[in-house]
Amino acid sequence: MSVPRYAALDGVIVRWEKATVHASTHALHYGTGVFEGIRAYYAPDEDELYVWELDAHLERLVRNMGVLDLREGPSKDQLWDISMKLLRANGFREDTYIRPLVFLGEGTIRVRPQTQRTRWVLLTVPLGSYLGKKVVSCMVSSWTRVSNTMIPPAAKISGAYVNSLLAAMEAARAGYDEAIFLTKEGTVSEGSVENLFIVRKKKLFTPSVSEDILEGITRANVMEMARDMGLAVEERRIPRTELYHADEVFLCGTGAGIVAAGEIDAATDSPRSTRPRPCHWRRNGPCAGQRMPSQS
Ligand code: PMP
């Protein structure tokens, strides 16, 4: 990976190595931050980066700041502006990940925030394929998806990602590429960092928002594209068995893109595994995202 030259700290572009915080930072101790993962795709023929769904990601971030009561954080416009400036400053000529993080800074050591101020960073780092494959093997995790009554999974709260990390580590140790979470009721929720769809008789099903999922931006795109293509899409509960019975299963997210789930729990190795779906990227292409202003 090429190391970025610059990062943004509290709205100011600084050298990468200067983007640091104090060890007493509240978020470091208690995971009190909200973040986003955004992608910019590089189009070599035009020598341009195209940011995918920047507006939707920033809107979600600003909305989620309210969940942790992160006051006086950046506005959507500020985040947009600094994203563009930083992409330009780092000048990567490859697919790039954009990571804004808004978090509680220094103050008391107590869990309940009192004197902490809201701080924010924005990083842009080169990032190719997240899972490194178009077809992945999955393990239904022994870790349950963090539920809405514990930490709201829809809020992309930093601390909640320990849940994803434990599931992903468990899957990797068992020799799988990715984990699939169940809810505490035992129905299918999502991947460690992706939403999940199954296909049965040419109809798409995805766990509804009540299934402790992040309401993914890629998920929304997939549903829209599928409907445009005349496919029926239904949001509902998915029992675990349907993972094994489905004609196709795929995971989707900004980082991961769209990847087919082949083998699940070593229980399936049907031909479905070789057919990543749907035609989302093929039709729209990454360049349908927010075009970067020319780098000149
Ligand atoms: N679920 C989780 C837990 C995630 O972290 C992500 C990645 N943001 C997704 C789903 C996919 O969401 P999106 O399509 O908005 O990236």
Characteristics of this structure?
296 residues; alpha+beta; D-amino Acid Aminotransferase, Chain A, domain 1; D-amino Acid Aminotransferase, Chain A, domain 2; 2 domains; eight-stranded antiparallel sheet; eight-stranded mixed sheet; 7 helices; globular; disordered C terminus; binds 4'-deoxy-4'-aminopyridoxal-5'-phosphate
Instruction: Sum up the overall morphology in one term.
Output: globular
Q: Taking all residues together, what is the mean pLDDT?
A: 90
- Mind describing the biggest β-sheet? 8 strands, antiparallel
Rg (CA only)? 19 Å
Q: Structural class of the helix and strand makeup?
A: alpha+beta
Cα distance spanning the termini: 25 Å
Number of helices: 7
The proportion of residues forming helix, as a percent range, comes to 10-25%
Q: What would you give as the CATH superfamily of the largest domain?
A: D-amino Acid Aminotransferase, subunit A, domain 2
Query: Number of domains in the coordinates?
Result: 2
Q: How much β-strand is present in the residues? A: 25-35%
